Fold each of these.
Amino acid sequence: MNPSAVSFWIETLVAVLLVFSGAFALVGAVGLLRMRSFFLRLHASALTNTIGAWGVTLASIVYFSVLEARLAIHVWAIIILLALTVPIATVLIARTALFRQRRQAGNDVPSPLGGNRPSSL
């Protein structure tokens, strides 16, 4: 189908979703600059970039579904991969930073959850 055949309202919806996701990416960038600790920076960027990715994915689904006159399922692969990998990577990066701070004896680091466990079960 010709891209000029897409309705004005669909293009407007896609533009709003793209601006929405761009605004969240901008908020994430400002959060990286303004937050003081590594963990706050990690939290701000992970949340805002994930929401931004959802906006781009929804805009792609709407546009290509209308353009091809059928539901565009292939775009879902992007957001499914992001939904699986971003939280896992965020947790692994946060754990690495937490263990590094514990090794350097930082005062603002919480103690391990396990604490001293009894040796007998």
Amino acid sequence: MPAGFEFVNNNQNIIIDEKFFNYAFISKHTLTFQQAGGPVTGGFGRQAFLTVAGDRPIVAARCSKPFTVSRARPVAGGWEFGWISVNGGPGAVIGDTIEGFVFDRPPARSGPGFGLQVFGADGRVVFDSQNRYMKVVDARTLQGATPSANVNLGPGSYAQIITLPGFRWTGTQASPTADWQWACFAGVVTSNGNGYTVAQGTTGEGTYAFFGMPAPRAESAQMHIMTVDVTGY
């Protein structure tokens, strides 16, 4: 590089660079699952939502009930994140909780002592040694709209970031003029003390008015999951 700052680890991976900011731990939230609707008529799994201010926040989630991400979008005043559980059966019920760990651009910390701050060309902090940072311990891609997996990383405290959900949304009819019967199947994560599992779950099902052919369908045939060590966060 012609000018700037880089910090390289033993594997020759750049972990601090003035061109990019490191994701720092910002806050922890315990969210409650609630009854919430969806874009069409039907029964949906219980859902939990979090709105935070920030630059480009990422939220890692941990829950003993099966879940997947339902939204991550900019809204007035910040960013909204949502998670949905399985509809019925082993899914979350109203009052069950899910933990969210928010990471974002590192704030500039002030206080006594020594440390290191790195600034980008725009003058904003990209690294401040007084922050705690995201510790990614695993990242993988699972094939299929509703994959299954048992990811064992050894004993620890982990949370998952679903960067791409796996799902299949389909509709069928009992007759050519009948309402559509729809269902959404997804790969759902269940956190545990050694990592997480992934299995198929039904996040919603119901009916809506006939609007013509072809049958509605939406699918994501891969699932991307990052695991973060949140010990002490």
Amino acid sequence: MAGVADSDVRLGRVGKGVRLAVALVGIGLLVNGSVRASDDVWPFGPMSQYAQTVPDDASITYTRISAQTDAGTTVDVPLNIEGAGVARAEIEARTGEIVANPSLLQTVADGWAKKHPDKPKYVKLELIRDTTQLVEGRVDGPPKAEVLATWQVRR
């Protein structure tokens, strides 16, 4: 073919048809998910937990774990797989269980110690819920911290 290098390959009719069909199916799935507005069809529809607005006069809560270390410092535990080996969503989903049985926090300390043997170890953990109040859409003062559970780490 004139003007086409030996290493260049043109897409044939079948290839173009397959690409068009895949694109149309993808668009159809996205439209279906959007019309149904259901997270059940994710990733082919809205993930509504990220698409919500907050009313102007509302409380926003944030769950975290604070740790006292054997170095005498207090730190917020990094709630992700690389940090303590547990994701924030797991902690939030099990908050009630942790409040009822604070020993469940031991796995957080164990995960941190296993992943970071060269860092200070956790000696005490607190599950904390920070609440930020909005008034007319603006933050009204600093967050209020409520300790939900405390656990003295076992060695």
Amino acid sequence: MGYTENDFINADMESYILITGFDDVFSSPVSRRTSYTYKELQFNARFLPMCRKSDDGQMTILELHKLNSKVAIVTGAADGF
């Protein structure tokens, strides 16, 4: 089983995130760094999928209106969360 919310609190947890990509227009790498403490996390929730296949299956549709949309999950459910 994974860590609990209390484990994060007791450890005073902070996660550091580094995302690196490539800008095709200027032909240069781009990076973004940030961090999150346990106080900024929302426990027992998951993001909703933002991508789906088109009806004909030829394209991927990115639904930006679902950005940051999340749903509460039940802990101990069959899917292991």
